[in-house]
Design goal:
The strands form 9 sheets. The protein has a 7-stranded mixed beta sheet with strand order 2-3-33-29-30-31-32, covered by helices on one side. The protein is built from 4 helices and 34 strands. The chain has 452 residues and is mainly β. It is 14% helix and 38% strand. Strand 13 and strand 14 form a beta hairpin.
Length: 452
């Protein structure tokens, strides 16, 4: 054993001697370069090496050019983004900007440089098999007290009172003066006894491989809808079908002024209990594989298409009463992973819902978005937005252009990557005009793609 160890040492000796012989030469070269540098001649220029990435330390907006010119998106705290270029510009502490994507600049003060590889998680983050990113509670009555500190909560000195339905995302729990409080994500406190938890709906639409052979529909009756052995109100009841069950329509007949649908052999259901999905031809100029959706207000349905081929169908909830959803042909302008939604300034009805997920704005404050606070899909319920179930909103958000990069919280559609085309109308025969960004209607984009 000792003999083998001696042989290894002898074998390593020549390379070590060679390396040690180079040390004096390196030191001499270093001294020589320092001497030349002190004389001001032959000095090599100093090169500053830029780290390869930046770790975002706080949620930060991105812009098309340094100096906060042209909003293009938002990145989440903790994301690690590549540094493509460094530039100087105003409206940023230190006047240093990093290019982190093509056409996307971030103020360097919003992060710390790093040598780690780029990394970002798809937003919003949904943990533990939940349907939505956050646990949210809402005020059960008018006049619920909101406190700004533990001392104020113990003394009963509230900062303000909120109306029934105001919601708060949960950041944690506190026990103060023998009572349990919810710590909200903005640092406020509310009594747990004044709040109730939202239970998101597990409803989801149907994925399609083209237009189905038979019409499909979804039951919208509360809890159950009666199934009868023959069409007509006086026919014998043979079964019942659950709320939000999907059915195929084999036959439609009218009896005593009412329509009835045959969903199986000798099984009939009144048409008023079902929303039947209607399919449409694409708007003029839509490409053979372009993604677009249609919402029919009369049916409260949404169908997603690729060209003329339907790929997904579901129920939605659009605006009610004086909060009608606008009709027209739109483009999604901004996609936001998650945000708090409030009533518009001056509105007669006050509301706030925290951490609404998977938002796609198509006109001012109107958007397609996930909805965790009701299960009434198939009926009008909203303040003008298009409500989708959490599962449906998540799928649509990921499927629709423009796509959100990992680690980004928001992105803006551009002429190079237009947003999802959305047609909202009452019925399939109604004509609507284009109301999206100028130059991004399907006909204009089709002409641009063909060229002169």
């Amino acid at each position: 054993m000792r003999k083998a160890r001696d042989q290894i040492c002898i074998a390593l000796l020549p390379p070590l001697v060679g390396i040690l012989a180079l040390v004096p030469q390196a030191l001499a070269g270093h001294r020589s370069s320092r001497a030349h540098g002190s004389l001001g001649a032959g000095r090599a220029p100093h090169t500053r090496v830029t780290p390869i990435t930046v770790r975002v330390t706080r949620r930060s907006d991105l812009f098309a050019r340094p100096g906060k010119k042209g909003f293009v998106g938002t990145v989440a705290r903790g994301s690690i983004l590549p540094i493509m270029t460094v530039a100087r510009g105003g409206r940023c502490k230190g006047r240093r900007w990093f290019q982190v994507a093509e056409g996307a600049w971030m103020c360097a003060a919003s992060g710390r440089t790093s040598w780690r590889l780029p990394r970002g998680r798809p937003q919003p983050i949904v943990r533990g098999g939940r349907l939505v990113p956050r646990v949210v509670y809402y005020a059960r009555r008018d006049g619920v007290a909101v406190f700004t500190s533990s001392e104020a909560a113990a003394a009963g000195e509230h900062d303000r009172l909120v109306e029934r339905g105001f919601s708060f995302s949960v950041a944690g729990w506190r026990r103060i003066a023998g009572r349990r409080f919810i710590l909200t994500r903005n640092g406020e406190l509310v009594r747990r006894s004044d709040m109730a938890r939202y239970r998101p709906s597990a409803f989801e639409g149907r994925h399609l491989r083209g237009r189905p052979r038979l019409p499909i529909g979804c039951v919208i009756s509360y809890k159950y809808a009666p199934v009868r052995g023959a069409p007509g109100p006086g026919a014998r009841r043979v079964d019942r079908i659950k709320h939000h069950s999907w059915v195929q329509v084999h036959q439609v007949i009218r009896r005593r002024g009412r329509r009835y649908l045959r969903i199986e052999q000798d099984r009939w259901i009144a048409a008023r209990h079902v929303r039947v999905v209607r399919f449409s031809a694409p708007p003029a100029g839509v490409g053979p594989h372009e993604r677009w959706v249609e919402v029919l207000l009369s049916q409260q349905t949404l169908v997603a298409y690729e060209g003329a081929r339907p790929v997904f169908a579901t129920l939605v909830s659009t605006g009610r009463w004086r909060h009608q959803t606008p009709r027209g042909l739109f483009r999604v302008r901004t996609k936001v992973a998650m945000a708090t939604m409030n009533n518009q300034k001056g509105a007669g009805e006050l509301y706030r819902v925290d951490d609404v997920p998977w938002i796609q704005y198509f006109l001012q404050g109107y958007a397609l978005h996930g909805t965790y606070w009701h299960n009434g899909f198939g009926r009008t319920r909203s303040h003008g937005c298009i409500n989708l179930s959490p599962k449906d909103a998540r799928w649509l958000f990921g499927w629709a252009p423009p796509h959100l990069r990992p680690g980004w919280m928001a992105t803006e559609a551009t002429t190079g990557e237009p947003g999802l085309l959305l047609r909202v109308r009452r019925a399939t025969r109604q004509r609507v005009r284009y109301r999206g960004p100028k130059g991004q209607d399907p006909a204009s984009l089709h002409q641009t793609a063909e060229g002169p």
